[in-house]
Amino acid sequence: MSFPTRRKILKSLLLGGSAMAAPSAVFGALYGRGEGMPWEPMKGQPPYYGTQEDNFFTVEERATTAVICARLIPSDEDGPGATEADVISFLDRQMAGFYGRGQHWYMEGPFAEGTATQGYQSEHPPAQLYRYALAELDNYCRDRHDAAFAGLSEAQQDEILKGMDEEEITFEGVSAKAFFDLILKNTIEGYFADPIYGGNRDMVAWQYVRFPGTRYDYRDFVKHNGARIDLPPVSLMGRPGWNSPE
Amino acid sequence: MTNHLPKVDVVLVGFGWTGAIYAEKLTAAGMEVLALERGPWRDTPKDFATTFAQDELRYYWRHGMFQETSQSTVTFRNNGAQTALPMRHWGSFLPGNGVGGSGVHWNGQTYRFLPSDFVAKSHNAERYGPLPEDMTIQDYGVTYEELEPHFDYFEKICGICGTAGNLRGDIQKGGNPFEGPRSDEYPNPPMEMTFSQDRFEAAAREMGLNPFPVPSANMSRAYVNPLGLQLAPCTYCGFCEKYGCGNYSKSSPQTTIIPVLMQRPNFTLRTDSEVLSVEKSADGTRTTGVTYVDTSGERFFQPAEVVVLCAYPLENTRLMLLSEIGTPYDPQTGEGVVGKNYCYQVMSGARVFFDEEYTNGFVGAGALGMAVDEYNGDNFDHSGLGFIGGGYIACYTTNARPIESHPVPDGVPGWGSEWKQSVRANFLKTTTVGVHGASMAHRSNYLDLDPTYTDRHGRPLLRMTYDFTLNDRRLTAHITPVAEEIARGMGGREVNVAERKGSYDSMPYQTTHNTGGTIMGNDPQTSVCNRYCQSWDLHNLFVAGAGLFPQNAGYNPTGTVAALAYWTVAAIIDQYMADPGSLVQA
């Protein structure tokens, strides 16, 4: 057989109609042969950011998760916490998307508990781990305190989270520690990620720690010699003064 | 059914740094070259545009450009008594995927190994007496002097920015006085340093050390390389490692080689094409080509005169094991070679927290740093220390990306109000003095095929059995206090030391410097490849990458990986093509 050239492939895709043209990785693509660097319009790789419509949590799950996030990164007199940063919206979108499904992770069995150095070994992808662990957390709280997690005092909530972190509290059928580690990691992600993903709303976390965001050129500041640099943050969406009148 | 394709002169398995280097030289010599890349096409305007390249969540935490573990991963255990389990997502290292490989998302710290690193076994045995029996280190079979022209050429391709320390034997002020003799200066002056490097430099000088600028693949000025490709001055945006550069400021296969290659009619690249096995002739003396699968699931046999493995070290090793080329290493007997001498890097450091001054870590670049080399390799007397090797000590300012980098002092809890307030107070006021420690090979650290877990094609995953060794522990215990002393001289409020203690943990990111598995050497009984990186078993199979390192040195590997690739491709063109056969008689 002869080489199917890239042009032939493109042609066949066009003849096949637009529905076929969408998945660009149907075949191995062919480049080179003196044709220079490939460039085609509409082939950029803008980010997947999720939308308002991407929901995973039930109303109850969302409420409980928001309370956990608010204890991990509290709102206080020093500055905004997970609540102001809308970390819960970030988590809802993440759990509804490829991350929550563990789509890019190796999730083949057999599953075993593993050692402390072997990393995540749950048979549940992140969203499922949240679902099971949130239910177990409320069961645990109802058994001991006669209320769901969200109905406890902040001191009680902190005590329980600390117990999960330090492996003094365990759940049935799902690892409380694995869940704690994951939700802490995801909450920090949502607090500090670019606002395009739904958290770090209005760049509140970047303003709080004074991270200037996704600026492109700091050459004028290389010789700062230890002085403070005051620059308002910029997101991949730009910043308020650019996108709309302040 | 497998489709048979027309034969090419050379097929390259993987298209990152080494694939691009081989392809450029071989096509310039007139050969018909095909590169097969498992991942997609990637290039600056489409994939690393400055309008979306600086996305921490996407590229680091969601592994935007890395190999997906759902495609293939590694199983891991600390020792042979444990059951290896798959790394379900990446942690301690981040294998690349797609055109450019890890060369897209590296930091650009471009060192040469020391002359003594290439003769680690004979050099250390001669100076310190017999080495421990379980320390399976070897000489490379190739020397620094032989590789020097190739280091020099790669530095010019990349436009490396630095200060020479040893120019043809003359020690130069401001450079690394311990480096091997260089035939030429770096093509570009060093990067402009920031506050943290200035403090590091002063503190190191105060201790009598010789700080020098880290050789950097982030440009200090505009540069045109020997292939006519242009690089732009780095803007210190703080998004290098784990990100593509949207500014053509970081040397990568895309910025320094590929555009020239794509003009050549005798070069072809197939993306989204994963090589499943390297095929052997009936008599088992040569490879006949490779079998690959594209994303439609269709299989192809690609015949070739020469096959070069240019994938990541872990995948090169797995391909050889799956293809049953060479004898798999057996840790019980110490016999066999494929998978032998897996090594890594022993990282530790001391973090400085300032009160008044701002380090402003967001003004950073991947290879923006100052280093000292007094404690690397055999630059110091190891008599009575109980270990060999060392590491450089450096102060980098690579980033202040807040998901990744929000350090707090020791004693602060990991979450809650106290943590949050401490993050704010310290976010722009901290820097690290790091130790980049060597990793010496040990009989019990190795790679083989996992007996249980398979990839999406049903092939066994690679199994990694690895833990830090006694040599590693003594090395890090000896050198980390030096880093701490430098850190204490930098004028901060407090210094916290992060020692390398306990077993190797596969999850916290350490470095993507996985080495060994397809090691080179002088003896087919103890190495996979000869000194020309040519398989001892199949004379028309060559191997590239850090899998060739018999042990890992106290430096970042890319400079040496590239020099070995240029060395081998020269041997193929100058010697092998005229008279195909083993370039070294066993």
Describe this structure in words.
Helix content of chain A is 39%, strand content 1%. Chain A is globular and about 65 Å long. Residues 1-26 of chain A have low confidence and may be disordered. Chain A is built from nine helices and one strand, in the order H-H-E-H-H-H-H-H-H-H. Chain B is an alpha/beta fold and 586 residues long. Chain B has one domain (2-68, 94-576): FAD/NAD(P)-binding domain, CATH 3.50.50.60. Chain B is built from twelve helices and 24 strands.
Record keyword descriptors for this entry.
heterodimer, A: mainly alpha, disordered N terminus, B: alpha/beta, FAD/NAD(P)-binding domain, eight-stranded mixed beta sheet, six-stranded antiparallel beta sheet, 12 helices, 24 strands, 20% strand
CATH class wording of chain B? Alpha Beta
Largest interface: A-B, 84 and 99 residues
Could you give the count of β-strands of chain B?
A: 24
- The share of residues in helices of chain A is 25-40%
Molecular shape of chain B: globular
SS-derived structural category of chain B: alpha/beta
CATH architecture of chain B: 3-Layer(bba) Sandwich
Largest sheet of chain B: 8 strands, mixed
Strand and helix layout:
The complex is a heterodimer of chains A (246) and B (586).
Chain A: H1 6-15, H2 18-21, E1 30-32, H3 59-72, H4 87-96, H5 126-145, H6 154-165, H7 176-192, H8 204-209, H9 240-243
Helix pairs in contact in A: 4-7, 5-7
Chain B: E1 2-4, E2 8-13, H1 17-28, E3 33-36, H2 44-47, H3 56-61, E4 74-77, E5 85-86, H4 120-128, H5 144-158, E6 166-167, E7 170-171, H6 195-206, E8 212-213, E9 223-224, E10 230-231, H7 253-256, H8 258-261, E11 267-270, E12 273-280, E13 287-294, E14 299-309, H9 313-322, E15 340-343, E16 346-353, E17 369-372, E18 391-396, H10 417-426, E19 430-437, E20 446-454, E21 460-465, H11 470-488, E22 494-498, E23 515-517, E24 541-543, H12 558-576
Parallel strand pairs in B: 1-14, 2-3, 2-14, 3-11, 4-21, 14-24
Antiparallel strand pairs in B: 4-5, 6-7, 8-17, 9-10, 12-13, 13-14, 15-23, 16-19, 16-22, 17-18, 18-19, 20-21
Helix pairs in contact in B: 1-12, 5-12
